[in-house]
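User: Structure tokens for this complex, please. No commentary.
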Amino acid sequence: MPPEVGAAGLPATRRRMPPWLATAALLLPSYAWLTLAVLLPLTAMFVFSFLHATPLGNKPVVWTLEQYRAFHDQPYLLGVAWTSLAIGLWTTGICAVVGFAAALALVRATAGRTRETLLILVLLPFWTNGLVRVFSWTMVIREGGFLDVFVRWFWPSAPSLGFLYTTPAIVLGLVHGYLPYMVLTCYIALLSIDDAVIEAAQSLGARWWTVLFKILVPLAAPGLVTGAILIFVPVIGAFMEPRILGGRVGVTMGTVIEDQFTQAFNWPLGSALAFTMLAVVLAVFATFSGVLRRSAAT
Amino acid sequence: MLKLTRRRTLALMGGGLATLSGSKLLVGPARAADRITVLNWQGYGTDESWALEAFTADTGIEVVHDYFNSEAEMLTKLRTNPGVYDVVLINSARSQQAAGEDLLTPLDLSNFPNAEGLAPALRDNAYLKTDGTLYGVSWVWGMNALAIRDGMDEPESYAALAAPEYRNEVALFDDAVTMIGIGAFLSGQDMNDPQDLDKVAEQLKAMKPNVKLLWSSEDQWNKAFSAGEFDLSVYWSGAAVRSQRKFKLPLHFVVPKEGAIGWLDSLSIPATSQNPEAAQKFINYMIDPKFYVEWATKVGAPASANEKAMEELPADDLNREIHKPEYIETMTLMAPLPDDRRTAFNNLWQEVKAFYAA
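Assistant:
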């Protein structure tokens, strides 16, 4: 790479580099990196998913499609997949409501320094280790944890509010981790809405809910959709939060796939499950992308 | 991964060639003779610096280490790096696989003076032998059984895991082989080869109303136990010692009437070792009671396969109290599992876990 980059930096009096070469030189590092770091491992995993057993040692390599029959052979996986989708929908939904409200407040009610500070506060969770965040929640929401201690300060005989090892605990941990995506995407979308539009609506007698649902939400829809995609995809594959916060109920596609890699040493099945989930996610997006484009057009 | 290994092998081959050609001129051959490479988990006894210093001072043999993070990785390293390793730690459930691939050297226990103290059941264990030949020196062992909170009745059987008095008070170990083993015990089957997996599933699924938590690390277990989240759990014997000793947790370790699920780690010499005599000396030192007592009391160790070493521990040593010699006879060792059975175990445990979650 260095020779081309050096040539591009030379003064214009020298022979000029053709524009396509400059483009290629600028694109090549990142695309080469993506090929190396994303495409190759993914391709390897895709190939693995057609094997009978993990290709290590001197076992003969046997090609098969049996891994993709997993949902048929082990029907409980359908239930697990449904749990994952439900957790994904809940998390995305809660993030959308909370994140949109927070972004709206940031855009409409704050300015300057205050806004910057509040934005940084939103980003704070990103700067802490995910595992630490999740473990700290276990201390808060377990029976007799900080939450109970706090409530019993005011009401000593309060029943325990601890809900560690339940699905809501998993959703709580995931919302905490992924909320900043939604706040940021909605913030950017809301920022681009012209104040005049809202003033016009209000002057014509629109109440706040009309403004919200007829103007703000539709105009900020691209932000909501981007945030939802950014959250939904990693959440249905999440395994750390379900494992730590879910206890017994924390069995999701993410933990099943992780088990195949770390415990069962069945990489082919793990990859097949992962690619099946990827196919489902892509199918969902393909179905909804038409709807979204239409709603954005109107 | 393949690429890395190949590159690495090439580098090693290149290095080997350089040493070969250079040895005549520059490097004295004696230097290679008093240096051995040990392949083990990191921080698992063989790499204690005080021990290596004592061993080197005693024998003049220098010890270097390489580590693995999974048993599969250990086997891959043995296969792809011939001539590099002189001592390797192998779980007894994997010994036959390694010996079957001609990766190990046959051993003669008369070359290991300290082997006379080894418990016969471990020393002559069938899993360490292939076609009647011994390929591993039994080193340390441990058990998976039950742990219960102090002050509660000791459970007599694993059936307590499903008993109504422990509603929502049980933690299970998130490990297919262990849990299938317990299900097999409860349905009266061979832990290593249960013929009727449906009965195993039935036993495990009956625990659902009791199961509060599936734990996968000691740290997670300690936190949840000290927070009072469960009273009865499937637990490791070695971890039970650490939880009591380091964290003063109020528990004791119980081996129910069905017996414990045992494991045994052995030390072997790879077939391609360049220095088997030095390797023998090192293994002999590893089963020396002197080394073990210091390791167990200062650092913390699993139970030694050497009965003499266990007897030299202080009488009130937790490790000694928990790992009673009679358990060596009553525990069932984890056997080498054929791939299809391992897959069946994993799939069944995954199904049971999904049942718990539903």
